[in-house]
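Weekly puzzle thread! Below is a chain. First person to post its structure in token form gets bragging rights.
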Amino acid sequence: MNKTQKYLNKDSGISRIIKNYEYRREQILMAEAVSKSIKTREHLIAEAGCGIGKSFAYLIPIILEIAGKKGERAVISTYTKALQQQLINKDIPLLQKALDVNFKAALCLGNKNYLCRRRLSTVRSSKLFDSEKETRQIKLLNQWADKTSDGIKFNLEFKVMGSLWNDVCRDPELCTRDNCSYFNDCFYMKARQAQKESDILILNHHLLFHDVNSGYNILPRYNIIVFDEAHNLEDVASDTMGLKVSRFRVKYLMSKIFAKKSERSLLNRTKDYLPAETAAKIKKAVTSVKRTNNAFFSNVLDEFGINDVNFRIHNKFLFDNIVSEPLKILTDTLSEATDAIENEDILKEYKAYKRRCLTISDELEIIMGLKYNNYVYYLNIESGSGRIYVSFNASPVEVSAVLNEYLFDTVHPVILTSATLTVNKSFDFIRERTGIPDRHDELILDSPFNYKNNVILYSPYSRIPDPAGNPDGFTEAVIENSAEILEITRGKTFILFTSYSMLNNVAEELINRFPKLKFLIHGEAPHGQLLKGFTENDNSVLLGTNTFWQGVDLPGKLLQCVIITKLPFSVPTDPITEARIELLRQHGHNPFMDYQVPVAALLFKQGFGRLIRHRKDFGITAILDPRIHTKQYGKVFIESLPRCSRAKDINDLKMRYLRLENR
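Winning reply:
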């Protein structure tokens, strides 16, 4: 018996701590593969079906192999906050009790997640409050600072205003480090020290890629990476390497430098430290940037309108860049101010804002001039909550070469795991998209759940028209079939969509038909609030897009039906998707089968996976897109699913569901 089996077998140390512990052979197989990967320093890709217990399968061998060894440290990177919280608050404390090994773990968060005592003190003592609400919240923050042990924002007992939190959170450019009077009591520095003393660091993909992009200068050194929820790697890597300049970003920065109605803006707080002439120059420069920023983005809206737009930019200087030059003038004016300021804290602020102005100016020039090769450039317009968001963006088309060089060739081993990494039982797609070297190990482990007995698959494709050929007819059929299913379940249902427009059309009709059901609509409330509402009412129906296809864990009787309205193909005219398709075509690939179908299949598997989260869970998965049966590529989606029982019609579905309920 090896070390890993000692703890995962039926009569193991873990079984004595976890009530109703379940032995899973698949979990041991994965743990052995992870242990081998650490010893040989070979990369590993492991698809672990739901219910295997993959967090223990990678945590235990990591702990056993590296705990207490000098120079050894592992990073566990997740996509969702929920999994981070599970690891740091549940799994790791349990293993600290169960294993006869001493080890430490720490949660790693970005700077803005931590309260800065010095900045809070500055805001509080200045008494420069812009509203009564701010006054109340500063008092509450001060009380919380005296009793919190970590100063982490998501542990706050109330919702703090975003503008206020930005003034009191840690800002690395403004940190005075050991010159700070609060240094010994600094939440961030305590967290950093805990990270340095830990064997395992828990963080998210974005922070890890920021560390990679920085040359590994943000986090303490590590030599093992586990990417859990690794199916999102390409998109997160692309996002962290991208650029975005928005109207709001420029407007917000200017308001922090100078705003007539905000006593806390930089210039209003520090004007006594500046010559009057310099202060006047800053006001004038800020006013100029505000004016040109409004004019620039107003021109964009005049051209494209206020409806949602994702417009790919092919030509340099689509609009005359009138913003960068005023930003550079403001940068020079702030630089002039730094020559006059003697107060070290205030000097840091002016230097920080100078860098931020220059960064935006440079990024806008890069985007408008299409300066980076292998990048796609696009304009994004979104309307929501009574506001219009406008931004110019640049994202890398392909990240595989960068990840190959700066991640997989630098850290050994890198372990990728998720319930959804294969397409047609092959890792080829994930390998090609993320740049994993040819030399690596692979492991596919099916879920131990009994889908055959617990899941009814329902796909009434003969009654539903093709969404591409008859979109209106398809929407009507989705409404009718969803209504038939809701007559059976009376709630406890997720309906997953690929677009807000179709979601809203279906929602309006279903709400009218089912007045006794509680409908929760994506976009009408925050993600967490919608899920909370769903769990509080057995008659709930949640209609969601993108984020609700993955990362949602509702075990037990809370969720008993998932309706997948449409195969989740990315929109081919989306700028990033379009650019990736073009690149694949240039290299002789079939973009539809080699990219669009695999991407959709992985998300499809995620959507299916929302239903069964525990061995005793049961319910219905309905697939309303007829193309899963009528198109040749539909086999890719069908074969990605485990074996389930199938209902031949709505009456058969009703009978099968009642039998499951009454078991």
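Puzzle host: Confirmed. Bonus trivia for everyone else. The mean pLDDT is 93.
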